[in-house]
Design goal:
The protein has helices spanning about 15-25, 50-60, 75, 85-95, 105-115, 120-125, 140-145, 145-150, 170-180, 190-200, and strands spanning about 1-10, 30-35, 70, 100-105, 130, 160. The chain is of the alpha/beta class and about 200 residues long. It has a single domain (about 1-165), classed as HUPs (Rossmann fold). It has a 6-stranded parallel β-sheet with strand order 3-2-1-4-5-6, with helices on both faces. Helix 5 (about 105-115) packs parallel to helix 7 (about 140-145). It is globular, with a radius of gyration of 17 Å.
Length: about 200
């Protein structure tokens, strides 16, 4: 099987997350996309909703797609083990016979190339990636400018995907709309919209 690991805070999960996962699965012929909510212990993530709410919304959002799956590995690991390198090691042990890819945006590729990720060398040297275009980022140039990335670019390690549409509506925008009494209803699944309203999430 070909499996994509799609990590994000999913705070909340949006229609763009789902569209992106579906597009990547189709373009790269993935058999499964695993939604991986990031640990609240990570220094670069500070979720606004509790883990239980983020997990509940992902379950609602992916319920009708057999290719989508939830894994809460990062929510349960010990402090110090919440880094993507260890996460990919976990999935390689879980799926030893399968072809695994970490799905990320081009902005994260730039950060890894600049040495901003813990265990970045080991992560890049031992894994494969599907990298989604982000506005204003030249993915080929980002790889070429970084010794870490270019020295591991064997033609298969970085699968670059231009989604074709600039759908960049963020979870931050949706949270701000909820906080200010806005109406972001059609930016996320109806089930998640109702869940947020019922539980009073993201209110200022």
């Amino acid at each position: 099987m070909k499996i994509g690991i799609y990590g994000s805070s999913f705070d909340p999960v949006t229609n763009v997350h789902l569209w992106t996962a579906s597009t990547i699965a189709h373009r790269k012929r993935l058999d499964k996309v695993i939604f991986l909510p990031s640990s609240s212990r990570r220094l670069d993530k500070s979720p606004h909703a509790a883990d239980e709410h983020r997990v509940a919304m992902i379950k609602l959002a992916i319920a009708d797609n057999p290719k989508f799956e939830l894994d809460c590995y990062e929510l349960n690991v010990l402090a110090g083990m919440q880094y993507t390198y260890y996460t990919m090691e976990y999935f390689k042990q879980r799926y030893p016979a399968d072809d695994l890819y970490f799905i990320m945006g081009a902005d994260l590729l730039v950060d890894i190339g600049a040495g901003k990720w813990s265990h970045g060398e080991e992560l890049v040297s031992k894994n494969k990636f599907i990298v989604m275009a982000r506005n204003g980022i030249d993915m080929l140039a980002a790889i070429a400018k970084s010794p870490l990335l270019r020295n591991h670019d064997d033609g298969d390690r970085f699968q670059l995907v231009d989604k074709g549409l600039a759908m960049e509506i963020s979870s931050t925008y949706i949270r701000e709309e909820f906080a200010r009494g806005g109406e972001p209803r059609y930016l996320l699944p109806d089930s998640c919209y109702r869940y947020i309203a019922e539980h009073g999430l993201y209110r200022s």
